């Protein structure tokens, strides 16, 4: 268990979160879902954030990747205090530095696989054909290069998640955030997706955070952070007993 | 990114065509109804347009339109001719008469007496026959709408005899005229003949048609005629507008068409608004993902604008094409004769489409803009 | 590149744009021509300097300088001979037509006979008078009053007186017969209708054998119409409201109806002293008017373009606007 009280951040930390708290309005009452989280995410590691539903793990990861403002505390991603940026700067920071993998893949159904994978590059302003070429290279790596011209709905769930992985990595972000990547998959395809993810995503200068409660894949983690009721209750290589 | 937006739009065929239908239907309704409205009320000015030479119309001060006029003494013609800036002035008689057809039917007709010598006051074109047939005795020229009213389609009216207030009248030509608002049969004849055809009242001269000298404006000449003669003088534009206004003031047409146009607008907003909102809601997860990945709100607005623009462009085109096809298709029907689409109306419906899309787009996009990118993690 | 060609994304927008372009073309091409047209035939108009100056317009009618003379007949009777045709130029006093004069000829012959008879009576009476006078002078010359009985003398005196009175009576009869003959000759002369002035025959409405009544038969046509057509005059009606503006004495520009491109300058002759109700020129019998007009008479220059009775449009200079007192 690691609780850091000081505001100092290790220079090599990919994410340095200090005193993160977050409140949600629920009718008349305010519910605090995070209670002063301090943690560092290091590059080159596959970090799991694990917890029951309602433990605040999604809130934490949203705050750490710059899509949800914390009520208190500050987050530095590769040295940038992301919540002191303007909205547009923050959006562009995400576009440049962060790759996302969602539980429901959230692929755009009406464009083909290569284009879906190329979306971050296209959003960065790269010409479509060039972006698609880059995306296809990555799809080849993920063993679905032959599906590049199909529409997402023509693919199986595991294949779709691999497209989502390609989309998260195509612009070579320094931080990859995955939300329950295997929740919608059966055990074997979930496993295959995680193997691939570990193989492709983990790099020395890249941090990778996975939010999950899928105990089938805990063995792939370099580090597991357990969250309970908005507090970190465990931080280590292995899952604590009782989970 | 915009092509992605377009793909997203066309990927959902049902909603895409629903949107096209909504916009197209709105455009069709607005354009077509406004076109019919404009053309219908412009029928009030058909009498003016059917006398293409006249630049100024001179009439009794109480006269209002070509059909609501009070006759002047015959010397009014000479008094108008005396005014500086009047290049020429000719008499013009408009009156109603009863005609007995060969079958014995009685029908009210408008008798228009045009200048004896120059035939000024006839419509510009003849459908059949030459204008000079009017120089023959007792000859009249019927307008093409009247032809359909009096004669079966297979029968040529040329040479037919009518009984006009106990006078013999022989149809010797068909004029290509714009029908009047009431689609009354119009018989054109020379002024001197018209005096015979129409029951005598003290004064007979309904209008004096005036051409203005070179270098003079109709407005200036009209003002001068009014000052010098005490008669009412209106330029062609003023007088045609007076005819239009008369229809607008005295019929329920503006209300009727106004309601229809408004309905078209409302239907457009309803269909398009609902469909567009549904479409955006269906795609809200994709938009959320895009926002999380790093697409700015401005870009999202552009994407939605591109979607609205495509829908608007195609739907508007379909609506306008439909209107044009409608007007062209029914051009042969006497009711629609001379109907045209004023160029302003497609622009107005374009503005309406833009407003519809702007309103519905703004309502629909609010949900997208308000979407927290974090929601994609739930 | 994904699927070759998408209906919704490529074909439909392209079709829409093409259709829109066609529609725009049709809309613009279908706009009605609301521009004014030039008259195919020239209407009457003021030309030259009148076009830009104050002027008064009027309609008028061509008439002979003498106005139209409806030739009548003093006596009724059958027409025996018509000596002129329409268009003939006649001298003053030239015979136009003759009416049956047989009755008058008979009267003349009768009167002539009476003259002869009267002359014979005069001769007889003067002879008797002479004889009576001679006998009376013989008796008066006798010195012896008893040579002739007093009774004889009285008888002779009576004879002389009777002869004298017979002579007077015969003379009177002669005078009567002579005047009867003169009356008959006058009547014969009156049955020959002659031109009252030199001029042109405008209309002949009688033929030999027709009966002419003395004039005044209501709607009956005049037998012969004539007038001095050299020069022709035009009688221009000016609305009474415009009378004050007319510059009297100025020449007018006149165009015949139906030939408005002709512009003839007519010289002022006179203005009728009376403002009269406008006479309808439209031939409509039912026309009643309350418009009064001043009639101005202008003389036309010699020209073949005008005919008596033709309608014309005239433009007359107006007085300078300052004189109008308006504005």
Task: Describe the 3D structure.
The complex is a heterotrimer of chains A (243), B (378) and C (327). By secondary structure, chain A is an alpha/beta fold. In chain A, the strands form two sheets. A six-stranded mixed β-sheet of chain A has the order 6-7-8-3-9-10. In chain A, strands 2-1-4-5 form a four-stranded antiparallel β-sheet, covered by helices on one side. Chain A is 29% helix and 27% strand. The model of chain A is unreliable at 1-6 (pLDDT under 50). The longest helix of chain A is centred in the last third of the chain and has 15 residues, at 187-201. Chain B has two domains: 2-43 and 252-377, no CATH class; 73-230, no CATH class. In chain B, helix 2 packs across helix 11, helix 2 (13-42) packs antiparallel against helix 12 (344-370) and helix 11 packs antiparallel against helix 12. Chain B is an alpha+beta fold. Chain B has a six-stranded mixed beta barrel with strand order 2-3-8-5-7-6. Chain B is elongated, with a radius of gyration of 29 Å. Chain C has 327 residues and is α+β, with helices and mostly antiparallel strands. In chain C, 32% of the residues lie in helices and 25% in strands. Chain C contains three helices and 14 strands. Chain C is rod-shaped and about 180 Å long. Mean pLDDT of chain C is 83; it is low at 282-287 and 323-327. Chains B and C meet through helix 1, helix 4, strand 2, helix 6 and helix 11 of B and helix 1, strand 1 and strand 10 of C.
Percentage of residues in strands of chain B: 15-25%
Unreliable segments of 5+ consecutive residues of chain A: 1-6
Biggest beta-sheet profile of chain B: 6 strands, mixed, barrel
Q: Overall pLDDT of chain A, averaged? A: 84
Fraction in beta strands of chain A: 25-35%
Distance between the termini of chain B: 25 Å
- Which two chains touch over the largest interface? B-C, 61 and 67 residues
**What is the typical, i.e. mean, pLDDT of chain B?**
87
Task: Please give the radius of gyration of chain A in angstroms.
Answer: 18 Å
Strand order of the largest sheet of chain A: 6-7-8-3-9-10
Provide the CATH superfamily of chain A. P-loop containing nucleotide triphosphate hydrolases
Categorize the overall geometry of chain A: globular
User: Helical segment tally of chain A?
Assistant: 7
């Amino acid at each position: 268990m690691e609780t850091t009280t000081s505001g100092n951040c290790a220079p090599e930390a990919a994410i340095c979160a200090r005193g993160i708290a977050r409140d949600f309005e629920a009718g008349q009452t305010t519910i605090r879902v995070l209670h002063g989280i301090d943690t560092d995410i290091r590059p080159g590691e596959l970090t799991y954030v694990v917890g029951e539903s309602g433990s605040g793990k999604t809130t934490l990861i949203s705050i750490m990747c710059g899509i949800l403002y914390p009520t208190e505390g500050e987050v530095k991603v590769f040295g940038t205090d992301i919540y002191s940026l303007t909205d547009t700067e923050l959006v562009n920071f995400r576009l440049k530095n962060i790759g996302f993998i969602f539980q429901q893949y959230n692929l755009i159904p009406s464009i083909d696989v290569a284009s879906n994978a190329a979306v971050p590059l296209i959003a960065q302003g790269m010409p479509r054909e060039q972006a698609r070429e880059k995306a296809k290279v990555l799809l080849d790596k993920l063993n679905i290069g032959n599906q590049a011209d199909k529409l997402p709905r023509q693919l199986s769930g595991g294949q779709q998640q691999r497209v989502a992985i390609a989309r998260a990595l195509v612009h070579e972000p320094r931080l990859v955030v995955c939300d329950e990547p295997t929740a919608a998959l059966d055990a074997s395809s979930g496993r295959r997706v995680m193997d691939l993810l570990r193989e492709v995503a983990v790099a020395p200068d890249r941090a990778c955070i996975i939010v999950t409660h899928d105990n089938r894949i805990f063995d792939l983690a370099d580090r597991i952070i357990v969250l309970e009721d908005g507090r970190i209750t465990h931080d280590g290589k292995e899952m604590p007993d009782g989970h | 990114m915009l092509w992605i937006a377009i793909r997203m739009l066309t990927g959902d065929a049902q909603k895409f065509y629903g949107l096209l239908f909504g916009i197209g239907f709105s455009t069709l309704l607005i354009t077509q109804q406004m076109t019919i409205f404009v053309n219908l009320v412009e029928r009030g000015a058909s009498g003016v347009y059917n006398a293409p030479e006249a630049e100024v119309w001179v009439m009794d001060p109480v006269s209002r339109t070509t059909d609501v006029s009070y006759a002047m003494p015959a010397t009014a013609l000479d008094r108008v001719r005396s005014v500086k800036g009047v290049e020429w002035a000719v008499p013009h008689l408009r009156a109603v008469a009863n005609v007995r057809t060969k079958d014995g039917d009685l029908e009210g007709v408008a008798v228009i007496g045009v200048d004896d010598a120059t035939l000024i006051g006839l419509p510009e074109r003849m459908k059949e026959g030459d204008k000079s047939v009017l120089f023959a005795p007792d000859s009249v020229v019927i307008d093409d709408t009247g032809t359909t009213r009096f004669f079966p389609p297979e029968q040529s009216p040329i040479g037919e005899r009518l009984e006009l207030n106990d006078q013999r009248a022989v149809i010797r030509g068909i004029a290509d005229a714009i029908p009047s608002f009431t689609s009354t049969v119009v018989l054109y004849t020379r002024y001197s003949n018209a005096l015979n055809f129409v029951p005598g009242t003290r004064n007979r001269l309904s209008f004096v048609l005036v051409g203005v000298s070179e270098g003079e404006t109709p407005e200036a000449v009209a003002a001068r005629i009014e000052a010098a003669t005490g008669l009412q003088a209106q330029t062609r534009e003023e007088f045609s507008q007076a005819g239009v206004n008369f229809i607008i003031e005295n019929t329920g047409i503006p209300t009727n068409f106004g309601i229809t146009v408004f309905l078209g607008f409302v239907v457009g907003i309803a269909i398009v608004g609902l469909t567009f909102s549904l479409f955006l809601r269906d795609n809200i997860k994709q938009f959320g993902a895009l926002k999380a990945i790093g697409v700015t709100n401005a870009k999202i607005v552009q994407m939605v604008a591109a979607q609205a623009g495509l829908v608007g462009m195609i739907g508007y085109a379909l609506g306008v094409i439909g209107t044009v096809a409608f007007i062209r298709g029914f051009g042969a029907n006497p009711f629609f004769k001379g109907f045209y689409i004023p160029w302003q109306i497609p622009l107005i419906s374009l503005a309406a489409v833009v407003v519809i899309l702007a309103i519905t787009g703004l309502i629909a996009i609010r949900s997208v803009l308000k979407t927290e990118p974090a929601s994609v993690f739930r | 590149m994904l699927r070759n060609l998408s209906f919704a994304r490529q074909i439909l927008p392209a079709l829409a744009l093409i259709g829109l372009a066609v529609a725009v073309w049709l809309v613009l091409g279908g706009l009605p021509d609301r521009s004014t047209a030039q008259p195919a035939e020239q209407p009457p108009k003021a030309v030259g300097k009148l076009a830009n100056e104050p002027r008064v317009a009027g309609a008028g009618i061509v008439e002979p300088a003498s106005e139209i003379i409806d030739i009548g007949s003093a006596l009724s009777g059958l027409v025996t001979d018509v000596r002129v045709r329409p268009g003939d130029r006649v001298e003053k006093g030239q015979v136009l037509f003759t009416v049956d004069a047989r009755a008058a000829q008979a009267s003349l012959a009768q009167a002539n006979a009476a003259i002869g008879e009267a002359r014979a009576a005069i001769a007889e009476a003067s002879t008797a008078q002479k004889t009576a006078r001679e006998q009376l002078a013989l008796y008066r010359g006798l010195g012896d009053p008893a040579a002739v009985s007093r009774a004889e003398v009285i008888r002779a005196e009576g004879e002389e007186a009777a002869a004298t009175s017979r002579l007077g009576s015969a003379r009177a009869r002669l005078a009567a017969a002579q005047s009867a003959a003169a009356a008959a000759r006058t009547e014969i002369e009156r049955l020959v209708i002659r031109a009252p002035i030199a001029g042109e025959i405008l209309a002949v409405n009688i033929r030999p054998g027709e009966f002419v009544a003395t004039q005044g038969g209501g709607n009956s046509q005049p037998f012969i119409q004539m007038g001095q057509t050299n020069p022709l005059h035009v009688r221009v009606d000016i609305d009474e409201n415009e009378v004050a503006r007319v510059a009297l004495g100025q020449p007018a520009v006149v165009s015949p109806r139906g030939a408005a491109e002709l512009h003839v300058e007519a010289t002022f002759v006179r203005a009728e002293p009376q403002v009269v109700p406008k006479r309808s020129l439209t031939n409509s019998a039912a026309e009643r008017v309350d418009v009064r007009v001043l009639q101005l008479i202008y003389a036309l220059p010699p020209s073949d373009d005008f005919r008596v009775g033709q309608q014309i449009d005239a433009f007359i200079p107006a007085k300078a606007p300052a004189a109008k007192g308006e504005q």
